[in-house]
Amino acid sequence: MRGLDFAAADSLDVRADSIVLGGERAAIGRRYDSRLRPGAVDRPGLAGRLRVFENAILEYASPKSLAFLLDPNRDARFGSAFEQGFVLRLRSGTTRLLAGDCGRGAAEIRGLGFGLTPSGDDFLAGFLLGLNAAQASFGTDLSEDIRAIYTAARTENPFSRAFLSCAAQGRYSEQAKRLVLALLEGAEDDIRPVAARLLAMGASSGADLGVGLLLSLRKHSVPSRQPAPARAGG
């Protein structure tokens, strides 16, 4: 797109092979693939990498982000009655999500908070991305949870609606994709640089999405424990 006169453009046409801005055509060369295709997942080291990501969120997140879900001491930063109600409702919805009551949890969180895309919507998008990452990496069928969250989270906000639709389909922004692949396949030293890029998105959007991603991926990355078999003669 470099060299095109954006200020003079009065039309935009996106085609399969090009973008036509104000009558000037720019061919599309490389395409970004938003799908996640994880390789061999370093599952034993994942818990440590998730801790590094959590620490990065707590360090970089803005005061009014959803990082309070990771550190209750941050509750004091929300002083007004509205803000305190916001905190209580986010905690309640998150508790439902983590307990598996996905539809009711998402409905409680949808549209809550500040920003062009409200904090609750960013959080739910991150949670959906975490579910898709876990499903792609660990072979767990989480399609019902994804469907329940997306159905309950749909909103009239066109930005949130598009963002949540992409997340439900497992379509990742470049920053989120780099981070998730680092969490699944990388080393602990890989996490902070890519996390910083995600957390720099918006006033708190990157951090809010990151909190949802972290909690979702952490919940579903731990193998379910099967009952120990009974011992014969015991």
Structure characterization notes:
- The protein has one domain.
- A three-stranded antiparallel β-sheet has the order 1-2-3, with no helix packed on it.
- The chain has helices at residues 46-60, 81-98, 102-109, 119-138, 143-153, 158-168, 174-185, 188-199, 205-221, and strands spanning 12-14, 18-21, 24-27.
- The protein is mainly alpha-helical and 234 residues long.
- Helices cover 53% and strands 5% of the residues.
- The model is unreliable at 224-234 (pLDDT under 50).
Strand element count: 3
The dominant shape is globular
Structural class label:
mainly alpha
- Strand order across the largest sheet: 1-2-3
* Rg (C-alpha, Å): 20 Å
Q: List the secondary-structure elements in sequence, H or E.
A: EEEHHHHHHHHH
Domain module tally: 1
What's the pLDDT, averaged over the residues? Answer: 91
In angstroms, what separates the terminal alpha carbons? 73 Å
Number of helices: 9
What are the segments in which pLDDT stays under 50 over at least 5 consecutive residues?
224-234
Helical proportion, percent range: 40-55%
Provide the descriptors you would attach to this structure in a database record.
234 residues; mainly alpha; 9 helices; 3 strands; disordered C terminus
List the helices and strands and how they pair.
Layout: E1 12-14, E2 18-21, E3 24-27, H1 46-60, H2 81-98, H3 102-109, H4 119-138, H5 143-153, H6 158-168, H7 174-185, H8 188-199, H9 205-221
Antiparallel strand pairs: 1-2, 2-3
Give a short overview:
With 234 residues, the chain is mostly helical.
